[in-house]
Amino acid sequence: MSSPTPSDSAASTARPALWQCSRFRLSLERPLVMGILNITDDSFSDGGRHRDPTVAVAAARRMIEEGADIIDIGAESTRPGAQAVPPDEEWARLAPVVEALAGLDVPLSIDTRHPGTMARVIAAGASIINDISGGTLDRAMFHTVARLGVPYVLMHLQGTPRTMQDNPHYDDPVAEVIE
User: Fold this and answer.
1) Which residues of 74-97 are buried (b: 16+ CB within 10 A; e: fewer)?
2) DSSP 154-171
3) In contact, 115 and 138? CB cutoff 8 Å
4) What is the DSSP-derived secondary structure letter of residue 84?
5) What are 32-51's pLDDT values in tens digits?
6) Predicted pLDDT at 41
7) What are phi and psi of 70, to 5 degrees?
8) How far is CA 108 from each of CA 2, 166, 173, rounded to the nearest angstrom?
9) Quick check: pTM over 0.85?
10) I want to staple 126 with a disulfide (CB 3.0 to 4.6 A). Which of 55, 103, 121, 146 is the partner?
11) At what angle do helices 53-65 and 87-101 cross, to 10 degrees?
């Protein structure tokens, strides 16, 4: 019988990687499935099909039944050329959907670039913020994230959704996104 190697020992005592999201502990031992729920009039992926809160809630419940681990809800289109949505209008779209889904057994991720919206959705029961702007469109985003202590998915874009396809250019995409 041979003695265990350091890698054998580490593997047998390693704890599973977990992501703490509010009251949820998500295992990172397997890929997680994020159901995307766009509640905008001009979504490029579903054409505004989930704009009605009742339809949106039913769609989210279906995604969960089909195996979604997280539901990501967006109330401002981020398709190329999209018009900006004011934070109060974004919240008005999100509020009934977040409130209806907050008690379910999956975390809610909210796709927003507005710190005021972020604070409201977290108070209403969301667990994760998914910011397509990477904090570049409102510097208060980082302060708000730190104050609330929530998981933050930092994305990247050049410009705004309205302008991001005007003349995108990268010399070194990986280095520039990291920067």
Assistant:
1) bbbbbeeebeebebeebbebbbbb
2) E---SS-TTTTTSS---S
3) yes
4) P
5) 999 999 998 766 666 667 87
6) 75
7) -140, 145
8) 48, 32, 30
9) no
10) 121
11) 50
Average pLDDT over residues 145-159: 83
Q: How confident is the model over 58-74, as pLDDT tens digits?
A: 999 999 999 999 999 99
Other C-beta atoms closer than 10 Å to the C-beta of 45 total 11
Helix/strand/coil for 27: strand
Rg (CA), the chain: 19
Between 138 and 167, the more confident residue is: 138
* First-to-final CA distance of the chain: 51
Question: What distances in angstroms separate CA 17 from CA 11, 20, 30, one per listed residue?
Answer: 12, 10, 10
- Amino acid at residue number 136: T
Residue in the structure block whose two tokens are 């933050």 = 152
Q: Tens digits of per-residue pLDDT, 72-97? A: 999 987 767 677 889 999 999 999 99
Look at the chain and count its residues: 179
Torsion angle, alpha carbons of 160, 161, 167, 168, to 10: 80
pLDDT computed for residue 126 by the predictor:
95
